[in-house]
Amino acid sequence: MPSLLDLRRRIRSVKSTQQITKAMKMISASKLRRAQDRVVGARPFANQMLRVLNSVASRVDPGTHPLLAEREDASDKVLLIVVTADKGLCGGFNTNIIKAASSVMGKTNTQAFQLGLVGRKARDFFKRRGFNVQFEEVGISQRVQYADAKRIAQAAIEEFTSGRVGKVLIVYNEFKSVMQQKVTTEQLLPVDMGSASRDVQGGQTPYIFEPEPARILSELLPKHIEIQVYRALLESVAAEHAARMTAMDAATKNSAELIESLTLYMNKVRQAAITREIIEVVSGAQAL
User: Fold this and answer.
1) Is 90 marked active-site?
2) CATH number of the domain at 4-21+248-287, please?
């Protein structure tokens, strides 16, 4: 049976942990609001960009731009961009992303994959296991800037246009709500314009383009990749704060239950000690 001193020390330790988890929950809640506003603001722009590209791409030959071309000779080579957090204590946020990336690579030969790692957790996991890492970005989740997304997108475009890979995928946590984050795998390159032909067949309104559609695509497609990467980074940051807030809230509640249980057990131990001392005093008095 532990002594009263040990129990008091353990209760103080749990209370200190509870204060930390409660503070982390409040910090994540304050950051989540700003991150959520940025995500909500980025989604309409990214979706509208895709609709415009669909409209333009339906009027040109897909082979006119390298970012639209399917590469049969390099179809077995894939660049997989994995977006995780730089910190832990956010439940299964990082674990789910790593499992999803491992599942994608597990379907084929892992040697055919090159990795672009965003976040310290992804970097530490995959580099320790000897995967082929093409580039890494660490420390950008605290304050995502468009320049960060542009740098990642340009690296992906360079790998694709050079012919070293035939496809570029990105895996990230999509922010759904405070309680829900969805692991999403999207194809960045070649740009998927599958809906364009359906729009044209469905009676799309004809437009006159100035300059010609091919030139518009050459300007818009790189921007489109940058915007999609930027949106994915914003989604990941908002999902991270939501996951951490939920995890810290659960940890705070669990610590409160543990404190209550330890306090009850400590009171029982103290009561037993007092009872034992009383019995010893009474026994001594009777012996005299």
Assistant:
1) yes
2) 1.10.287.80
